[in-house]
Amino acid sequence: MAEHRIEWVGTPNYTPGRAGRKPIAIVNHITAGYYPGALTWMQNPAAKVSSHYLVLQNGRILQLVKDEDTAWANGIVNRPNWPLYDGTNPNRYTLSIEHENISGGGLTEAQYQATLWLHKRLIKRWDIPINRDTIIGHDKLDTVDRPNDPGPNFPWDRLFTDLQRWRGGGQVAEPWKVKLVEQAQKEGLISEYHNPDDPASKWFVLAVALNLLKKIKS
Ligand SMILES: [Zn+2]
Question: Cα(5) to centroid of ligand 1, in Å?
Answer without folding.
Answer: 23
